[in-house]
Amino acid sequence: MISTLLVAHPWFGPTVLAVLVVVGPLLGWWLLGRPPRLSWILCALSLVPVVLLTLVPTQREVFERCAVGWVLPTFGRVELLANVLLLVPPVLLAAVATRRPLLALLGGVLASAGIEAVQALLPVLGRSCDTNDWLSNALGAALGAGLATVALALARRTGRRAEKAEPTADALR
């Protein structure tokens, strides 16, 4: 379904990628001045498409449980590019919420591996695992962590103070 849309509109993936690269650090910078809870809520919302596109059962019959291949995504490989885009927002938002891009990157890479493992172990889902999907997801996670790093650098450069997770005594009065 999503692949059909992306093949019919090949400009969609690169456009989303460009928007993420431009808007991602600015959104992260803005969120750094807010309570981390907002970043976590947005992160959870950004995981909804990840679950829908990777773990919801399909009507497809699986002939191959796991495909092994190492192909880098390009603008012409719309499904691989979509897999890159899939993890950029959650990793960016988790990195902003924790202020730890490397931890969020690790979480994104492990989550992608977990998704592929579930797809391999549950053929009833009608999905097959693919190392190319994991690689593309990992690249998207790296991009999300990189954009969060830019947001954190912008916040430091502009003197924007990150909101604390715990309310201060003054805030409780």
UniProtKB/TrEMBL annotation:
Domain of life (superkingdom): Bacteria
Domain VanZ-like: 46-150
Keywords per UniProt: Membrane, Transmembrane, Transmembrane helix
Residues of the signal peptide: none
InterPro entries: VanZ-like
Transmembrane spans: 12-32, 39-58, 78-96, 103-122, 134-155
Protein name in the entry: VanZ-like domain-containing protein
Taxonomic lineage: Bacteria, Bacillati, Actinomycetota, Actinomycetes, Micrococcales
